[in-house]
Amino acid sequence: MKRRLADEQPGEKRRCAVYTRKSTTIGLEQEFNSLDAQREACLSYVSNRSDWRPVDERYDDGGFTGANIDRPAFQRLLADVEAHRVDIVVVYKVDRLSRSLLDFVKVMERLTAAGASFVSVTQNFSTADAMGRLTLNMLMSFAEFEREMIAERTRDKICAARRKGKWTGGPVPFGYDVRNKHLVVNESEAVIVREAFQLLLHHRQPAIVARLLNEGGQLPRLPAGETMRRWTKDAMARLLRNPLYAGFVRCGAELSSGEHAPIISMETHQSARMVFAAPRKARTKATSRSSFASAHSCAASCASRSANRSNRNLLHRPWRRLCQTLWIAGKRSPFPGRRPRLARGQPVMGR
User: Fold this and answer.
1) 8 A C-beta contact, residue 23 and residue 65
2) Cβ distance 62 to 28 under 8 Å?
3) pLDDT of 11
4) Under a CB-based contact definition with an 8 Å cutoff, are residues 111 and 117 in contact?
5) Residues 131 and 205 occupy one common structural domain
6) Which residues lie below 8 Å from residue 152, measured CB to CB, with a gap of 6+?
7) Cβ neighbours of residue 56 closer than 8 Å, sequence gap 6 or more
8) How many domains, the chain?
9) Domain that holds residue 60
10) What local confidence, expressed as pLDDT, does residue 282 receive?
């Protein structure tokens, strides 16, 4: 606002826009109606200030409620204020601008950001003086209280609906569709969900589950604004932890039986929870033992069954020499991204 006033030349009058509103259309057909009376009172107030002048544009909303700001003339006024064509907004009463404290505070924030002031003719309310700013601060306190009350009522309503097993909206979970505000199983996606849980119980790590599903072409939905569909470790972990797939709806720490059909059994969900509850090292060791067993069982005569642990300090884990027979035969290595140490002069597949 200081920058706005600094740009004005000395002696230049401030531009005042008069805004009028009437909730109903009754009486608007009269030659001199309520909107005209409001405008006349505001123009009289402006004319008593030597450094103010009214703009020619009229901002009249006849037949529009003050419960919201979806009014054509009011939106034009805000656009002109933000375009710096208006310096002061003048109304007959505060409730002509808005009857909602939340909307009023938002409007005042937009006016302040544009360097404009607000004046109520019949009330001692003007942001141009200290008393007006004090009143504004009080209104903002009440607006904050109103927002908190609305948030509490909304949370209570959502929790009450979830305790009854209802789906309360939001992103549609993978494996389900929404029909008539109810979750319905998507059979093609439900197959991927069941496969993901089976892979978790076998490999015990969401990262491995995500990689195997991506390689198998069992991909998620295309996220909005993205062009590539791939499972990530975090997305897979969220899916595998979600009790929704076992037929439950979560509300905070509470679980309620949902109205939707489950995709997996309760036993599978409990097993998955036990996997995530296990320490990370235990899950990693279990996967490593399974990988070593598959690597050592490929050929009894393989000479590379031992693990080289000389570089333990590098990345805090040992470098392992994998089974050469698996690599040469073109099979998948149990440790993705690591090549085995082959004998000198031995050809590597793919070179």
Assistant:
1) yes
2) yes
3) 63
4) yes
5) no
6) none
7) none
8) 3
9) 2-142
10) 57
Task: Name the stretches of the chain with pLDDT < 50.
Answer: 1-7, 291-335, 342, 347-351
Q: Do 180 and 269 have their domain in common?
A: yes
Nearest to 92, CA basis, from 24, 39, 28, 15: 39
| Structure token pair of residue 323 | 């089974």
- 153 domain-assigned: no
pTM: 0.50
Our CA angle for 183, 189, 195, nearest 5°, is 120
Residue 281 corresponds to which tokens in the numbers above? 């090292």
Do 49 and 89 meet the contact criterion of CB atoms below 8 Å apart? no
Which residue is listed with tokens 């409001």? Answer: 38
Asked if the structure places residue 159 within a domain, the reply is no
Q: What is the model's pLDDT at position 341?
A: 53
Are residues 301 and 332 located together in one domain of the fold?
yes
**Amino acid, res. 85:** R
The one-letter amino acid code at 199 reads L
Each residue of 232-256: pLDDT tens digit? 999 999 999 999 999 999 888 888 8
Are residue 180 and residue 241 in the same domain, yes or no?
yes
**Closest to 101 (Cα-Cα) out of 60, 63, 64, 138:** 138
